[in-house]
Amino acid sequence: MPARSRLASLIAASLLGFQAPALARETNRPKPKPAAVAKPKPKPPAVAKPKPKPTVAPKKAPTPIPGLRTQESGDALVEPVGSTPELQGDNQYTNTINWTKRVVTVLGIGIAPDRGTLATRKTLARSYALEDGLRQLSEVVDKVRVNADAYVRDLTVAEDDVRAKVNQRIRAARIIDTHVLPDGSVELKLQMSLFGKDGLAGAVVRDEPSPIQYAADATPSLPASQYSGIILDARGTGAQPALAPQIRSVAGSGLVDRPSVAYVHTREGASDLAGDKPLVFKVKRAAGLTKSDLLTESPDFAKMKDALSKGGLSVVIII
């Protein structure tokens, strides 16, 4: 073997001897552990939220027909119909139908003219106030319910003679209060009865007796009756007051004779008119276009009819 080849073999052997321990160390070195991967934390189970309870709006008591019930009206059933500014200040006077006292009341205003003596201005202003009051009275009367099917305006438009009778009663209205201002202007309060000799009912209700007796002036009960009156509680039915309401059973039976009727706003007011021993019934529902007919359960209707047949009892209706 030539010397050059021998030298190359020695160099190669020495290199192999040097790399062997290094390779052994690399082989025996522990392999690094892979980095731990953070496991995602389990989500807590979703807790079902309680569903909010639906808010139920509190039931409102049905608004009685008067709408406006002032301290002055007390237990009376007062229905406002329009208003007019008072000359005495910034107040508004409300024209009303008082179904308990059975009257219509309005305010007429007359402005004094700029010229003339004070006496002349007062006279003219009073004339203007009366004219204005009669005009307003006519407007209020047109809105009075006659029965379950019609208002006064419905009858006066259809029949000229009815309009003539109504106008006659309007012109007969009474002046119940007069207020004269320093400048001569005048305010007049006019009042018209719903029933009686010159009452509105006599012009629009065909079977209206004259004069008619109502609860406040009713004839005392006959000895045969143990009751002092009849109270019909129509609160919550939407019933409306009218000149000639009909009282029927839910089965359809009706009273042959229409009893005298008064309307009030409270149970206490009904007791004042119906006496201390009244028969009390709950109205089942109101019927008709104007909601003035009153329907009761058949047993109640039979008992009421029997009591009315003995005479002397008036009916008081709470609305």
Along the chain, the helix and strand elements come as HEEEHHHEEHEEEHEEEHE
Strand order of the main beta sheet, please?
1-2-3-5-4
Class per helix and strand makeup: alpha/beta
- The first-to-last residue Cα distance is 140 Å
Largest sheet: 5 strands, antiparallel
- Count of distinct structural domains: 2
- From the spread of the alpha carbons, the general shape counts as flat
Rounded to the nearest angstrom, the radius of gyration is: 46 Å
Total strands = 12
If helices are DSSP runs of H or I spanning 4 or more residues, what is the number of helices? 7
| Residue share in helix | 25-40%
Overall mean confidence score, pLDDT: 80
Strand content: 15-25%
Segments where pLDDT lies below 50 for 5+ residues? 56-72, 210-223
Task: Kindly describe this structure.
This protein starts with a helix and ends with a strand. Helices cover 29% and strands 21% of the residues. It has 319 residues and is an alpha/beta fold. It has two domains: 127 residues, no CATH class; 104 residues, no CATH class. Helix 3 crosses helix 4. The radius of gyration is 46 Å and the shape is flat.
